[in-house]
Amino acid sequence: MPQQKRPAQGPKRRPAPAARNSNMQRRRAVSRKQNRRVHALITLIFCIAVFILVCAGCFLLVKTDGTITNKPNQSQGDSSSAAPDGADSTTDGDSQQEQPTMTEEEQRIADATATASANCTKDAPQVVDPALWDERGKALMEQLAADEFYQSEGLKYSAKDGCPYMIAVNRAASTVTVLALDDEGNYTKPYMAMVCSGGADTPLGFFATPVNYDWRLLAGPSYGQYATRIWDSYLFHTVPYYSQHKDDIEYDQFNQLGTQASLGCIRLLVCDVKWIYDNCPIGTRVVIYDNADDPGPMGKPGTIYTDPTDESKRGWDPTDPDSANPWDAAFRSGTAIRSEAAWNEWNDAQNDGRWNGSINPTDLQGWSTDSSVEGTRG
Asked: S-S: 187 plus which of 77, 157, 235, 263, CB 3.0-4.6 Å?
């Protein structure tokens, strides 16, 4: 039986041109997506590598060539030379920079500056070259002596027997500058500066102190410690107390120290007014003038802030030397700007008992400690 022949198969049929184009487009789209992913990955790796290189370069630059310096805030000049920057330097082990060694005197001054600066919380002056103090003191007294008003007041700044100091009060700038004798026997040498508060009624002129008091009744009524009369009803005294007790100060008024705040008297920190009480004999000359632009030859000291909500401390002047004072003893030196001679005298007085000898007796029976009680503005 003869075999049946299969029908011959024709050639394979190719996809239509439209189908071929569609397949090619799909393959190209997949290829482009893969290329974009690869490109994004390469870009990311490159950016990370650049970032690492930049960071490493900055680190090496600082490590080998740079010196990192942290400068503390400049604050009050309370000594006879400018406070050093006290910068901390970081260098590599091979090129460590030697810091200049301070002399004993420079270290003492730096320590004193740091102590007083820590006590000062606002308006601290920049430290200036203390060599300028003498020049400025002399210029101030010569300027006042040439003024017609002070000539009519009989201003004198030559030495007076028994009086080692003269006191210059800048009413407008709320600063008291104590002047010692210069080599020519005139009161032109700045000794120390104190922050104060006077008022619009504080009299300008030339005076000599007639009397002083350990406590003094003021208007209100209220009370002041270590008061020294300047003239008439005007005195140096502390910020007023509601009662004659050391824990009963008008704390809202205390925080105005350094501004125009009084009825005319000159208010001072306890440590500063006590210094006048202890060291400026009756008959000490006082000149009161105005210069809002220049506080004085040594600048204006800062102030200490007392928290009105702190009932345990707010009634005390932080600088009161009384042992019952709850404030830290570091505040007892106040914020005065002191010359080298003034710091020496201060330290000697602490060590030999002179400072403690005139401390008013402690009395902790204050009855108000409340700023709503109307006190004096003396």
From this structure: 157
β-partners of residue 205 are 288
Indicate which residue of 120, 196, 237, 245 is catalytic. Answer: 237
CA distance 170 to 178: 11
d(CA 144, CA 136): 12
Diameter of the chain measured on Cα atoms = 163
Nearest in space to 80 (alpha carbons), one of 113, 53, 51, 57? 113
Q: What's the predicted TM-score (pTM) here?
A: 0.69
Report the alpha-carbon distance of residue 149 to residue 152 in Å, rounded.
5
Catalytic annotation present for 265: yes
Centre a 10 Å sphere on the Cβ of residue 347 and count the other Cβ atoms it contains.
14
Closest CA to 240 of 223, 226, 261: 223
Report CA 82 to chain centroid distance, whole Å: 15
Instruction: Give the Cα separation of 79 and 176 in Å (integer).
Output: 16
Q: In residues, how long is the chain?
A: 378
CA distances from 199 to 205, 335, 365 (A): 14, 21, 30
Marked catalytic residue, from 120, 196, 245, 265: 265
The residues pairing with 285 across neighbouring beta strands, listed in sequence order, are 208
CA distance 290 to 169: 8
Q: To 5 degrees, how large is the angle CA 50–CA 56–CA 58?
A: 105
Please, are residues 300 and 258 in contact by the beta-carbon 8 Å criterion?
yes
CA 355/CA 274 separation, integer angstroms: 9
Distance CA 162, CA 159 (A): 9
Per residue in 254-285, pLDDT (tens digit) is 999 999 999 999 999 999 999 999 999 999 99
* Per-position DSSP letters for 135-166, written without gaps between them: HHHHHHHHHHHHSHHHHHTT---B-BTTB-EE
Our answer to whether residue 163 is catalytic in this structure is no
Give the C-alpha separation, 137 to 301, whole Å.
16
> What pLDDT, in 10s, does the model give residues 210-266?
999 999 999 888 999 999 999 999 999 999 999 989 999 999 999 999 999 999 999
